[in-house]
Amino acid sequence: MESIYTTSMRTLLGFAVLLFLTRILGKKQLSQMTFFTYITGIALGNIAGDMVVHRDIKVIDGVTGLVVWALLTIVVEYISLKSSIARVILDGEPSIIIKKGKILEKTMASNKLNMDDLTMLLRLKIFFRQAKWTMQSWNQMAS
Questions:
Q1: 67-86 confidence digits (pLDDT tens)
Q2: Residue of 107, 110, 88 whose CA lies nearest to 96
Q3: How far is CA 65 from CA 37, 77, 78, 96, in A?
Q4: How crowded is residue 47: how many other Cβ atoms within 10 Å of its Cβ?
Q5: φ and ψ at 101, to 5 degrees?
Q6: What are the CA-CA distances from residue 17 to residues 11, 30, 38, 67, 118 (Å)?
Q7: 34 touches 26 (CB < 8 A)
Q8: Angle at 43 between CA 38 and CA 48, to 5 degrees
Q9: DSSP string, 85-116
Q10: At what angle do helices 35-53 and 2-25 cross, to 10 degrees?
């Protein structure tokens, strides 16, 4: 019975700390997340999960790990926000896929992007406003 109580208390504490830290880290929509932000979320969840499940990890050590990871994330995001050089190093440079109405196939290939992915991304950005738009009409317009 004490095992269930201990696990429950560790879970509640881990949940509360994780909720607090994710609120501090800020809101980013899924489409705006960088790979780093995504991995940070996974790492924070993993640290919290390990703290809850593994009895050999002291609660204070788990909370310390969560807080330090979140602080490091905040520092990296701040540096990325203030320095364009750091932003390029940390987030990479954006790639131009369509230039002057032409689809740059080499750039698509280097970004591991196919035509289906491109059309999906364009639809998400409301590029195709009418149902009659197809890749065939796009290709006709581009040529």
A1: 999 999 889 888 988 988 88
A2: 107
A3: 17, 18, 20, 39
A4: 24
A5: 80, 0
A6: 10, 22, 18, 8, 39
A7: no
A8: 130
A9: HHHHHHH------EETTEE-HHHHHHTT--HH
A10: 160
The Cβ of residue 62 has, within 10 Å, a number of other Cβ atoms equal to 21
Chain Cα centroid distance, residue 68: 19
How many residues does this entry show for the chain? 143
Residue where the block lists tokens 């790990």: 65
Q: Contact at 8 Å (CB) between 104 and 97?
A: yes
Q: Report how far residue 89's alpha carbon sits from residue 79's, in angstroms, rounded to the nearest whole number.
A: 11
pLDDT (tens digit, 9 = 90+) per residue, 16-62?
Answer: 998 888 888 776 645 567 778 888 889 999 999 998 888 899 999 99
Q: What DSSP line would sit under 12-67, residue for residue?
A: HHHHHHHHHHHHHH----GGG--HHHHHHHHHHHHHHHHHHH-TTS-HHHHHHHHH
Where does the pLDDT of residue 131 fall: very low under 50, low under 70, confident under 90, or very high at 90 and above?
Answer: very low
The C-alpha atoms of residue 52 and residue 13 are separated, in whole angstroms, by 9
